[in-house]
Amino acid sequence: MKPKDGYSAEELLNSTQGLSYNDFIILPGYIDFNPDDVDLETQFTRNLKLKRPLVSSPMDTVTESKMAISLALLGGIGIIHYNNTIEEQVAQVRKVKRFENGFITDPVVLSPEHTIAHIDEIKEKFGFSGIPITVDGKLGSKLIGIVTNRDIDFETDRSKKLKDVMTTDLVTAKVGITLAQANELLKKSKKGKLPIVDDEGNLVALMSRNDLVTNREYPFASKDTNKQLMVGAAISTKDESKERLQELVKAGVNVVVIDAAQGNSIYQIEMIKYIKKKYPELDVIAGNVVTIEQCENLIKAGADALRIGMGPGSICTTQVTMAVGRAQSTAVYRCSKFAKQYNI
């Protein structure tokens, strides 16, 4: 048998010496495929897949709605940090969930007695301004109009009531219309928004023309079963995060990351068990870990994915300040090899 020129990952990383990414280089091989043939779809957690293996850090100052939206559009996912109030973190998650939808099932709704100034506030807060108007300003009541930029752009009096500027000549669709049919109706009508109503004319959802453009530009976007962009959120192991978690679930978060430098603790294990018992459909990413023993404890507690590494980077300095950790390449190899047995 012809001897190999180099070493396999197994040969390198099963040694007693820990290796970081700077300690080796990958040797070139033989290519018999085109770059376009490469499929980057990745199993992100036990139940979630990503078209592109791009995930942002849950650390504070790294990810809020703009970063999360950009990552999701490109096929990855952003994790909203928790260095904020519950209301602030939930608002960031909702911005992502509202950004691009097939059917917007919880659109912002106003009444005819609201003013243009209220539209300005919504645009500042959420980044859009096409607002359906119902008789009482609530979803599920009679749709009577819609206000878009073209209705208010040249109005100098921002205290003017919406009943005086709203468009009442509406193109609507009935509940039960498919996404493809709704897309076609939007294209033909050349309207910016398509309200979805029931048999009594009550507003139940909304569709945006901008979403059609975005769908064309970002074919690999990470979306859930409701056609909303996927987003994650970080929480701590403290009991106060249970209230935060409840509100994040209401906002539609797709996955939570328990953010801790050392994941193998009684506090994280108890938090994982709590989450999986109360929200069994919600995927949990646990960590951080660098050893097989750590992985085993978190997987047995119910973790759906693991974060590997303890301070290997330039920003997180756990290894330097605590003298605890492991060379990152060795940690990834050992932990991933073990976790694979459990479909993690």
Architecture overview:
The protein is an alpha/beta fold and 344 residues long. It has 2 domains: 14-100 and 222-342, Alpha-Beta Barrel (TIM Barrel); 116-210, CBS-domain. Helix content is 33%, strand content 14%. The protein contains 12 helices and 12 strands. The protein has helices at residues 9-13, 65-73, 86-99, 116-126, 149-152, 179-189, 209-217, 241-251, 266-278, 292-301, 318-322, 328-339; strands at 42-43, 49-50, 79-80, 131-134, 143-147, 173-174, 193-197, 203-208, 232-235, 255-258, 283-289, 305-308. It has a 5-stranded parallel sheet with strand order 3-9-10-11-12. The protein has a 3-stranded mixed sheet with strand order 6-7-8. The chain has a two-stranded antiparallel ribbon with strand order 1-2. The protein is elongated.
Largest sheet: 5 strands, parallel
Shape: elongated
Round the Cα radius of gyration to an integer and report it.
24 Å
Q: What is the end-to-end distance?
A: 36 Å
Element order, helices and strands?
Answer: HEEHEHHEEHEHEEHEHEHEHEHH
- Helicity level: 25-40%
How are the strands ordered across the major sheet? 3-9-10-11-12
CATH topology descriptor of the largest domain:
TIM Barrel
Total count of helical runs of at least 4 residues: 12
Overall number of structural domains: 2
What is the structural class?
Answer: alpha/beta
Gross CATH architecture of the largest domain:
Alpha-Beta Barrel
Mean pLDDT across every amino acid position:
90
Number of strands: 12
The CATH class of the largest domain, by name, is Alpha Beta
Task: Report the sheet-strand fraction.
Answer: 5-15%
Query: CATH homologous superfamily of the largest domain - what is it?
Result: Aldolase class I
Low-confidence stretches: none
